[in-house]
Amino acid sequence: MTTMSNLSRDLVEEIHSRVPITSQRAVRSTCKRWNVLSKDQNYTKDLGPASKEIMLIMIRGCRAHLMSVNLHGVHNHRYLVDTSIKELGKLNQVEILEVLHCDGLLLCVTKDYSRLVVWNPYSGQNRWIQPKSNNFHTLDRFAIGYDINNNHKVKVLRFYYWSDYVEYEIFDFKSNSWRVLDVTTDWKLHRRGVSLKGNTYFIAHERFKVDQQGEFLRCFDFTRERFGPRLPLPFHSCLDDSVILSTLREEKLAVLFKKCDGCDMEIWITTRIDANTTVSWRNFLKVDMQLYPERFRSPCRSFLVEEKKKVAVIFDIDRKTWTNYKPYMVGEDGYQGEVDLRDSELWMLMCSYVPSSVKIQ
After folding, report:
1. What's the mean pLDDT in 147-151?
2. What is d(CA 271, CA 49) in angstroms, rounded to the nearest whole number?
3. Pairing of strands 80-81, 334-339
4. 275-307 confidence digits (pLDDT tens)
5. Which has the closest alpha carbon to 87: 107, 59, 108, 110?
6. Domains in the chain and their CATH numbers?
7. Would you call 133 exposed, middle or buried from its count of C-beta atoms within 10 A (0-12, 13-18, 19+)?
8. Three-state DSSP class for 12?
9. Which of 194, 218, 98 is nearest to 144 (CA)?
10. How many whole angstroms separate alpha carbon 281 and alpha carbon 129?
């Protein structure tokens, strides 16, 4: 009689990869070997590619959803890209305004700014974070990362800008409290950050001389609890341009760039990046949007890259409503069509997702 202990690791991984994310916790409780496998970081990072699907965090009706999207067969039609999409998980307890991702953990900002919640869809674990006063402020911005020298100790960064006043705080999970960081900056983070290998990267600009200096990268190092040096972007941009950050499975950084008065839309990907030393880039895509005047006339909300297929999916404003977003696909041949995500006008893409067994302290 064949038992689980007699199966090869490759076969166990194949079986385990076919179990839905939302059922992983129940499966782990039935078999010690599966439980050990589920804690292997190298294995959990391969769950998505094993099924040829991309996992996304999306918001619909102020609820955070973990979705699986299969982009294979994208060239079936010119004007409507066929996909398959299914829901893998949902955070039901509270209405969510924004979601940030780091190594399988999601930092969710509630719609009423009353609390934060850190959620791991893979393990089902979550942890609520209270503000120091009654509520967080609508001007508050957040990031999530971890200390690489302390067993991936998770941390949350809050920062607040008001005129010339700047405040940075770190949430300590062990003491369940916020503490102010002694950080002085002469530049401003004005766009949404993305997590890469435990740190968060932001688009920044000087507080003064914005147009002359242009925008650049700043990385918050959660281990040192300090910002790293100024890192260059592969182009010159200013506040009116579209500059959006994304990641490729938290292994590479990607940036979308379109000048406010230009026709070309570019996507660049890092070939090397170090938070405290340097960054190098390669051009991934360049599309002449003059050929598609009805697309991408305003800053997009977010985008994701499928590197092997040489395509990108961009969430752009819907010209019919001017409030909702629609996903479009672009590739080497230019605009390839609208992506059919079923009622996509009701969804908002927040970020891609990579499963992880990281525990919330």
Report:
1. 83
2. 21
3. parallel
4. 778 899 999 999 887 776 666 655 667 888 888
5. 59
6. 1-38 (no CATH), 39-353 (2.120.10.30)
7. exposed
8. helix
9. 194
10. 37
